Every structure is written in C-alpha cells, then in structure tokens.
Amino acid sequence: MAENTPKALVVQSDRTLLLDVHCESADKVRQAIIPFAELEKSPEHIHTYRITPLSLWNAASAGFTPQGIVKVLCEYSRYEIPAGITEGFSLLMSRYGKIRMVQDEENPADKLVLIIQDKSIRAEIGALKAVEKYIEKKDDRFTLALINRGTVKRELIRIGWPVQDEAPLSKGEDLDIKLRTTCLSGGTFTLRDYQITAANSVTGSGGEGAGYGVVVLPCGSGKTIVGMLIMSILKTNTLILTANVAAAHQWIQELLDKTELTKDQIAEYSGDSKSIAPVTVATYQIIAWRPDKKSDFPHFRLFRERSWGLVIYDEVHLLPAPVFRVTAELQAVRRLGLTATLIREDGEEDAVFSLVGPKRYDVPWKDLESKGWIAEALCTEIRLDLPENLKIPYAVAPPREKYRIASENPLKENIVLQLIENHADDQILVIGQYLTQLNFLAKILNAPIITGKTPNAERERIYGSFKRGEVQVIVVSRVANFAIDLPDASMAVQVSGSFGSRQEEAQRLGRILRPKGRNAWFFSLVSRYTVEEEFAANRQKFLTEQGYKYSIQHWMDYK
C-alpha cells in the first residue's frame, strides 16, 4: 500500500469497525476482520462491522487470539485505535474453553461429561435452572445424555459460557464425490471465486478447529453449489437437512446435475419417501417428528445410527426454533450451515454457534450484485390509504387485528393488477401472509396459488409451469420464504408481511435475485397511517443496510 494511501478501516470506541469500500485494500481488510467481527450494514460507501462477545467466541473457536485481533486492527486502522477498545478481548475470549465437553469414559456410548476446573463456574452451572433437567450432578461431576449435547451448549452460551466441545464425533464412511465440468442438463459448470473461498473457509486445513461452521450468502448466489463443493472436498457420506420437500427435491436435482453421483447413491427421507443412501436429503420436520411430547424421536434415532461424515443444514437460521432443535444433535465431525441471513427477530443467533459452529464466511449482497453474480434489485414501497369503510373498524380494533385489517386492505388488489399490467415481460411472484387475501388474488389474477396445504406434487407442477414460462404469475404464501428455486422470477409483489421480519424480507427479496441480465423489481404494498407502516419501516431498514435503494411512494403519485 502506498504511504499516502488512506487505510480502509476506522476503529471506533463502541467496537464498531467502519470499512471504506472505495479503498484499494478493502477486500483484503474485509477478509482479515470477518473472523472476529459481524457485518451489520453494507450500504454504498461505508460498511459497518461490530465486535461482539459472540464474534470473539467465534474467533476463539477458530484458533484466533486476542493479540492476533489487536494486530489486525493496528495494521489496517486509518487512525489510532481508541484507548480501551481492546480491553476485555482477553477476558471474553478466555471464557471459551473454561467449560469443556468430553466423552464419558464410564459410559462412552450414551453419556458426555462437562469438565470445569474453576470451582465458581462449577457452582454457577450447578445452580442453573435452565440445564437442571439435562444434567446429572454427582459431587463435582456433571454428566449429560448424548441427545442433550446441543441443548446444554445452547443454554450455557446464553449465560456467557461458550462450551468447547471435544467429544469425539464419527468420521463417516468414505464416498468419492466429484463435481462435473459439464452439467447433466447441458452447459459448462464453473465455480465462482467466492464459492471456492466460502468452501475453503469451512474445510480449512482439515485439522482441529476446521470442517464445521456457517456460510452466509444471499439467495440466488449458489449456496447449494458451496455445499456440493464441500462435499467433493471431504468425500464422505452426507446428510442434507432442508426446510421442506420441495427444497429436498431441488437438492437432489442439483446433485444429479452437477456431481457424478448416481441416482442409487442419493435418497430422499421425508414424509413422502423414507429411503437411506450414502447421500440422503431429509426434511427438518421428519427428523423432529415424534408421536407425543414424551416419546422418543424415532427418525432421529435412525439417523444417529448412520455413519455420516458431513451434515449440511440448509436454511440454518431455522435451526434454533424449538421444533427443529433436536436436529442439532446430528453433529458429525464436519457440519455446514447455509443461510442468506442469520438474523432472527427473537435474537437467538447465538444458538447456531452452539449447534452448528461459527460463521466462517459472509459477503455483502451488493458486492455480488456489482460483479453480476446476483441481479440488481429495485425496491419500492407503495403506500395507499385505507378505504373509508375500514377506518373506524381499524381505529377500534385490538393491535393484532389492526395489522390484519391493514394487511388485507382491499385497495391492494387493484394495485397488484396494475403492477402486473405494467410489467408484462416479467415473471412475477405475489407473496402474502393471509390465505383469504391470497385466494382472492389468485382468483382475480387467474393464477395458481401455493400455500402450506398445497400437495408437494402440485407445488412442483406449478413451479415447473412457471419455470417454463407457461405461467407468468403465481401467488404464494409464506412457503415462498424458503428454498424455492425459480431462476426466472424477476419481480415480487409483497401484499403482506410477518410483522416487520427482516429475515423474511431477506428471503422474499432473494426469490428474484438470480442473475437474468435485467433488473429485479421488489414491491411492498403498505396501508398508510396504520401499524403496517411501523413494521414496514423495520423491513426497510434491513434492505437499506444491505445497500439497496429503497423508495417510498404514494400509489397516486406512483401511477
């Protein structure tokens, strides 16, 4: 770097890091700080990262030291590092490893032991109500059942004690997995540079502290490709857990198209089909199913008995949800989480750290857009008034009912019709929350509708028609939030959302981000002077922080 060239990083006293993306060294600096800082905002010119306890524990688990972090900050900071910012790094990072989880030598098949040398920490854990039902205490010895491995780690990190999990994990059976150079469907298969970097960030050198973690990439950027690349590097039996059956089928299609795996080497394990093969694609729902709350998880036990060498958690941000938590016990030596965003409105992102591993790779959405890897998205919020006959009912309704009245504003129907007429050359998704509203829209648009009740075969038939261009518009409920591969979709109209969920906004925007050589359009319809505006502001904040231009217009002005 030339002596007069300004450095790319500004370190602030609140532990935020500002990265000037116009500096020549910006990419190099980003790679240096990603292991210990979380990306918060990535608009046009300055990207904001933050150093948090969780980000420091991520770094500690990956072998970073406080001294190494300080060295990076000093090397790349434009100004002198504020006094006191590095204080506490050592204290926080030293918490990682104070509690170790190892195999119980007395009962190695079923039990684990917590090794805690510090008496005060031992006393704190012994008195913790949250783990009382999971841990057996005998004198100073704490044991737990293998099935509670992830749950205990999750509860302990909540009180500031990240567990160093050293219990042995199965290596898995070898499986020769090779990527094709030409897809089975035709066309050259080429890996992108960021996909290779993401895969290498997880596999590392193959030694201790490598082979597990989370990759965060926007929808449409090829997270599935990253998963398959890691499979080809590790060459082992692989279990892939997905959000739904449609996603499972997409994984199977991609594996057959882009790897040399044969049909008999890949199986589906879901509510529709229950087969096992060296590569098995399953749904979270089937793994977490049990007859009642007191029964065992029959399918979970079946998967534990298989010698998997890699578990891939697709849409890993779903994992902390209580219904899916049991899947976290499928911790192979190597495990990979894939997601477009780790944001959860309940603030439980740290659960993924406990259950899968630290975040290994993250890249700003706009960086991929600028290089043409994902489509440029134009985001517009269109505001409209409530009709006169709903203003009084809205005013006297309880809060939750207020949101529904605003969301189901009947004036939105004409706007949807007009937008579709204005975009006759686009492939369009109409997305919403409330089935009554969506069913009516499907009727007036003469468009197929997909909801949670739509059979899987019917869903795939509709998706196929959309991909082939036989259908221009489909109406979809929240099932569209996850794992729908519709590469030609270029426009989304959101008629109602989930109470300002940023994570949902990321998923919905992601439906239209696959590169198509044209802009992608994202419209949100919001009732003016209602609580819907407040929730929309939260979603808008997320999109602008990702660098997207977000305009707000009144419908009369927009037309």
Task: Summarize the structure in words.
The structure is a single chain. With 559 residues, the protein is of the alpha/beta class. The chain folds into 4 domains: 9-93, no CATH class; 99-165, MutS, DNA mismatch repair protein, domain I, CATH 3.40.1170; 193-363, P-loop containing nucleotide triphosphate hydrolases (Rossmann fold, 3-Layer(aba) Sandwich), CATH 3.40.50.300; 370-558, Rossmann fold (3-Layer(aba) Sandwich), CATH 3.40.50. Helix content is 35%, strand content 19%. The chain has 21 helices and 23 strands. Strands 12-13-11-14-15-10-16 form a 7-stranded parallel sheet. α7 (193-203) packs across α8 (223-234) and α14 (388-396) packs antiparallel against α15. The radius of gyration is 25 Å and the shape is globular. The mean pLDDT is 84.
Overall number of strands: 23
**SS class:** alpha/beta
What portion of the residues fall into strands of 2 or more residues?
15-25%
Per the principal axes of the C-alpha atoms, what is the gross shape?
A: globular
Q: How many angstroms separate the termini?
A: 51 Å
Low confidence ranges: none
Described by strand count, sense and barrel closure, the largest sheet is: 7 strands, parallel
Helix content: 25-40%
Biggest sheet: strand arrangement:
12-13-11-14-15-10-16
